[in-house]
């Protein structure tokens, strides 16, 4: 596990976008994907909003994903195994980088065919608790023609394209990097979350 943590943290330090190809085991990625598909089949996944106001704005022209928040209270073995990995990662990050992270939040995410998320920053205007964004992709055999790339816009004008392939985890500062999910031509599955202070 520590090797995947180092890969993620070192690539983040080097280029502002951390990427690890095996942050979760393929077994755990698969189990979480099955959870997501089950939640979807029982219609538990709901339209995501933008912003954190009580009246969340569900504007499909900005963001078309549907989500379901993970929670230890669900007593789901795979969800809890995911939180165990995150607890170990946060402890390692705080110890090695003095990040002072005190919490996190994660949701399952499904972008159905034809959906996208326009360019945005993850930190809310009225609340700066989100420090780091993390996305863990759960899509086996993703092809460039499937679309759905994560585009990350660097301050020097570079646009970095990330394929949402299974096992890949992306990590960046929530307040700094604008990013966008390109229109997907296939259902696109992930876990998305934020480390908070
Ligand atoms: O799924 C992704 O690649 C990015 C998702 C995202 O930007 C978000 O949920 O804020
Ligand atoms: Fe985002």
From TrEMBL:
Q: Name one GO biological process term.
A: cellular response to hypoxia
Enumerate the Gene3D superfamilies for this protein. Answer: q2cbj1_9rhob like domain
- Identify which cofactors the protein needs according to its UniProt entry: L-ascorbate
UniProt keyword Cell inner membrane present:
no
Q: This chain belongs to which protein, by name?
A: SM-20-related protein
Name of a matching Pfam family: 2OG-FeII_Oxy_3
Q: Which organism is it from?
A: Chitinophaga ginsengisegetis
Q: Which PROSITE patterns match?
A: FE2OG_OXY (PS51471)
Which superkingdom, per the lineage?
Bacteria
Keyword set for this entry? Dioxygenase, Iron, Metal-binding, Oxidoreductase, Vitamin C
Where does the Fe2OG dioxygenase domain start and stop, copy by copy?
100-197
GO molecular function list: ferrous iron binding; L-ascorbic acid binding; peptidyl-proline dioxygenase activity
For this protein, the record's InterPro entries field holds: HIF_prolyl_hydroxylases, Oxoglu/Fe-dep_dioxygenase_dom, Pro_4_hyd_alph, Pro_4_hyd_alph_FE2OG_OXY
């Amino acid at each position: 596990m520590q090797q995947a943590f180092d890969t993620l943290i070192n690539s983040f330090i080097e280029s502002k976008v951390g990427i690890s190809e095996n942050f979760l085991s393929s077994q755990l990625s698969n189990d979480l994907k099955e959870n997501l598909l089950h939640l979807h089949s029982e219609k538990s996944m709901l339209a995501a909003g933008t912003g954190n106001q009580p009246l969340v704005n569900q504007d499909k022209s900005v963001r078309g994903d549907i989500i379901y928040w993970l929670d230890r209270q669900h007593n789901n073995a795979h969800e809890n195994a995911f939180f165990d990995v995150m607890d170990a990662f946060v402890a390692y990050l705080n110890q090695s980088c003095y990040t002072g992270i005190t919490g996190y939040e994660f949701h399952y995410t499904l972008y159905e065919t034809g959906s996208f998320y326009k360019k945005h920053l993850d930190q809310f205007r009225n609340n700066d608790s989100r420090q780091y964004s993390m996305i863990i992709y759960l899509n086996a055999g993703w092809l460039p023609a499937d679309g759905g790339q994560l585009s990350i816009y660097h301050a020097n004008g570079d646009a970095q394209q990330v394929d949402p392939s299974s096992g890949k985890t992306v990590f960046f500062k929530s307040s700094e990097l604008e990013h966008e999910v390109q229109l997907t031509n296939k259902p696109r599955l992930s876990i998305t979350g934020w480390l908070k202070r």
